[in-house]
């Protein structure tokens, strides 16, 4: 007898064959006996292909959203949660019973839960490397934690400093350095953000949203100077479970 798929979920992104989400949710559905639930990758070259996925995927109940569509997907949605609206980026979409698309951000929750146990009283300010969709969830979480932050960008921007302005004084003032860019992701594991790693100390936290490889060159460089390091795996698990709760509420 052919099993009828009752609930379909998936990941929206570009070049996502490496994705954590498909394996994670497939294992979850199998181990927790969510019969009839499947998870698949929707790998599209441009966000303009998104409506076709919605149109041609029956029983689709929810999506995760990854690079590079966390911001560009927003105009295609019917509604945003209050927090997703404030953050300006979406990484979770719920398809309602009426077929409406509602966007949420669970990245900020995953990042906050992952960073919080590392924090000590001297961790007052953070540098966020990158200004894309992932950085927005990070910034919102830091706001909730009462940590001041500054964005770092390759180009001059109104609310960000450029990489070439980071120096010893910067590291004195900022005790948490967060890589929210894809630089260093497998297969480009030798790449790393261009910052002066020699100024890391044991008082610094280096946090990389990347989880593959487990220890990026960014983290290795910071670790060599004594910094406490953390990759993005726990963040991903926390945000994935939050997404599952959103889809089922």
Automatic annotation (TrEMBL):
<keyword id="KW-0028">Amino-acid biosynthesis</keyword>
<dbReference type="InterPro" id="IPR022893">
    <property type="entry name" value="Shikimate_DH_fam"/>
</dbReference>
<protein>
    <submittedName>
        <fullName>Shikimate dehydrogenase family protein</fullName>
    </submittedName>
</protein>
<dbReference type="InterPro" id="IPR013708">
    <property type="entry name" value="Shikimate_DH-bd_N"/>
</dbReference>
<keyword id="KW-0057">Aromatic amino acid biosynthesis</keyword>
<feature type="domain" description="Shikimate dehydrogenase substrate binding N-terminal">
    <location>
        <begin position="11"/>
        <end position="93"/>
    </location>
</feature>
<keyword id="KW-0560">Oxidoreductase</keyword>
<comment type="pathway">
    <text>Metabolic intermediate biosynthesis; chorismate biosynthesis; chorismate from D-erythrose 4-phosphate and phosphoenolpyruvate: step 4/7.</text>
</comment>
<dbReference type="Pfam" id="PF08501">
    <property type="entry name" value="Shikimate_dh_N"/>
</dbReference>
<dbReference type="InterPro" id="IPR036291">
    <property type="entry name" value="NAD(P)-bd_dom_sf"/>
</dbReference>
<dbReference type="InterPro" id="IPR046346">
    <property type="entry name" value="Aminoacid_DH-like_N_sf"/>
</dbReference>
